[in-house]
Amino acid sequence: MADRSRVLRILAVAPTSFFADYGCHVRILQQIAALQERGHEVRLLTYPTGRDVPGIRTSRARGWPAMRGPQIGPRPAKILLDASLLAHAFAQARRWPADVVIGYLHEGALIGRAAANRLRAPLAFDYQGSLAGELAGYGWLKPGRPAYRLVRGLERRIHRRADLILCSSRHAEAALRSDGDCSRVVAFPDRVDTAFFDPDRFPDAARGELKVALGIPADRKVIVYLGLLGRHQGTHHLLRAIAAWPADAPPAHFVIMGYPRADAYRRLAEEMGVAARVTFTGKVSYDDAPRYLSIGDMAVAPKVSDTEGHGKLLNYMAMRLPTVAFDSPVSREYLGDWGRYAPVGDSDALARQLAELAASADAQAIGAALRARAQAEFAAESLGPALEQALLSIAGGHAAR
Description:
Blueprint: E1 9-14, H1 23-37, E2 41-46, E3 58-60, H2 77-95, E4 100-104, H3 105-119, E5 123-127, H4 131-137, H5 146-161, E6 164-167, H6 170-179, E7 185-187, H7 204-214, E8 221-226, H8 235-243, E9 252-257, H9 262-272, E10 278-282, H10 289-293, E11 298-301, H11 312-318, E12 323-326, H12 329-335, E13 340-342, H13 347-359, H14 363-377, H15 383-395
Helix pairs in contact: 1-15, 2-3, 3-5, 8-9, 8-13, 11-14
């Protein structure tokens, strides 16, 4: 049985531009904050770019002068960044003898395993989706091709080197167990701070002012999206759904909040003839996310990945937003029977589901039920004790007393 009296020194390896206000980073932030609140010491190793978060002890690998902005998605420069992060992890392991290493994403697990070996410490791998699947989503790999199979093989080797895998969904947990990739796999779904994401924090007058500031026409149903933009996020499917909006449906205006390439998608909306029905805000900070979501009557989640986490759904749920998503196991895991679903990749069906929900007299009750579900099953308060217990279970004699 894990000893709650132990205080862990935890080395967290995140090969990403932390903090850049999107889901992967929010998960990392929540976990580190929850562990610190329970008295554990955490040191985060990450890329040279990103924003420091007060209270999170962050140590950055070396970069180079030409590097600017968050490094999002696969790109050749990340090979050099990961090499720099590996050297940094070795240096930190010499100076700061941690009891446990957490590796975020597959590259973080690979670097984390090397650091853990030097420390003779266990490795927990925070799994947020298939590496091969992500590369395929970005168009770098094609399923079934030799390169795809090679990356899948590398994935499995990384999984088997972890002492514990923390999965971002129960669906991912089941998939890893069926593959036999690791004997110790635990589902750790994303959580949401329902006090922070609370629509009652924002009076009607404040919401109205923000709508005016964003140029949203009056008397329209406002449908919001908040997250990264890209093909793997289904942004092109969302624009096609807007173009396919039924003529007999209630008038609607879409607010697409996020980055990168917001300008490119704005131009695409103009080419498709839907620009008058869409507002692109660009990047919205995590601190401002609840305020911007508060202007929505409903939300949309067109993500096409079937292995990655889907934390934005929890934010929608906490904000009492009835939601339409592409039908994936992860979407159903969060939204349950209260979600509305369209077949993955079917933009016309997405438009129909959105239009039906916009016209539904039950929309407000659905939103209330989704917030209650978020509070009961995915509240952030439950994260700390569960994560602490999982890490203590593998720490063994490494923990400081």
